[in-house]
Amino acid sequence: MLKSLVFVLAMFVMSASAQELKIVVPSNSDSYSINARLVARHITKYLPDGSTTVIQEVPGAYSVVAANYLYEVAPRDGNTIGTFYKNIALIGALGGSSIKYDARKFTWLGSTADGRDDAVILWSNRSGPVDRYRTEELVVGSENIVAGDATLLVRDLLGIRMKLVAGYANSSTARLALERKEIDAAVYSLIGIKTAKPDWLKPESEIKPILQFGNGTTRHKDYPNVPTLAEYTNQKELLDVFEKQFVLLRPFVAPPEIPLVRRQELRHAFARVVEDQEFLTEAKKANIDVKFIGWQEAQRIVNETFAAPENIFQQIRDMK
After folding, report:
1. Structural domains in the chain plus CATH codes
2. Is the pLDDT of residue 56 over 80?
3. What tens digit of pLDDT does each residue of 63-79 get?
4. What is the DSSP string of the chain?
């Protein structure tokens, strides 16, 4: 009888102490989601409370809906974290009626990938140099065209004849349209294509990079013959502000003002995950690049984004 009572009490204590860590993702089908699910499988090893993880999809407005949810709705108890698209800080700095969050006030955990080792690329199913589209029309597809969208930056700084086709349900649908030649081009980071569409990287692929950006005039080592956007413009300050958003490629945050102890636990666990050998092995198999950016550097990059001159923000807002 005593043994049975001890067993029941032990089970009660375990269930009472265990917590569910919810991870919010902006999509169910792209590389951000794949990366988040991988993090979810390993982060609980380093949390002290026996947490389990659950993925919550909060799609919409290029992850602005997910960011608003984390900032305004999610409990501030440290049991919810989230990942967003890389431009969430710049979109927040630009402001607007749909922006309910302040990216500086999130509890930053860091990023599992560093965009300074990556490239943002204009992928196309049409051959020839990008210069040709100063006279020829280029049909470019996207899920949403939002303030600070890289597609608009390419159009305005390069000065090409671009027809935008927006409103695809998700990135998978837009990529399929590119493969079917329903559109001519689309903008995606190399790291995302490695995970979601590795066939594009094969020599025989019809989808080719025709322009890259993200690191000034530095060309990615895999694409030394593909020109950078910086080589075509003298608006260096604008481009620097814009490209800063590409550093935090796989950002993770918790809501603001979570308890101090839980904040420390989450940051510690997140930093340990990216060193976990099982995590790294799975990431390699899934073609997921991993290079950790800690929460302090993530916070610094976000603060620098918000500190940009107002005239630069206005130039970006005027891109429509």
Report:
1. 15-114+247-312 (3.40.190.150), 127-244 (3.40.190.10)
2. yes
3. 899 999 999 999 999 99
4. -HHHHHHHHHHHHHHHH--EEEEEES-SSSHHHHHHHHHHHHHGGG-TT--EEEEEE---GGGHHHHHIIIIIS-TTS-EEEE--TTHHHHHHH--TT----GGGSEEEEESSBGGG--EEEEESS-S-GGGGGTSEEEEE-S---TT-HHHHHHHHHT-EEEEE---SSHHHHHHHHHTTSSSEEEEEHHHHHHH-GGGGSTT-S-EEEEEESSTTPPPTT-TTSPBGGGG-S-HHHHHHHHHTTSBSSEEEE-TT--HHHHHHHHHHHHHHTT-HHHHHHHHHTT-----EEHHHHHHHHHHHHTS-HHHHHHHHT--
Distance of CA 239 to the CA centre of its chain: 19
Query: What is each CA distance from 232 to 153, 256, 313, in whole angstroms?
Result: 12, 40, 21
Which residues does 263 contact at the CB level (< 8 Å), separation at least 6?
Answer: 78, 107, 254
Please work out, in degrees rounded to the nearest 5, the angle formed at the alpha carbon of residue 147 by the alpha carbons of 177 and 292. Answer: 80
Cβ(126)–Cβ(184) below 8 Å? yes
pLDDT mean over 253-264: 97
pTM over 0.90, yes/no: no
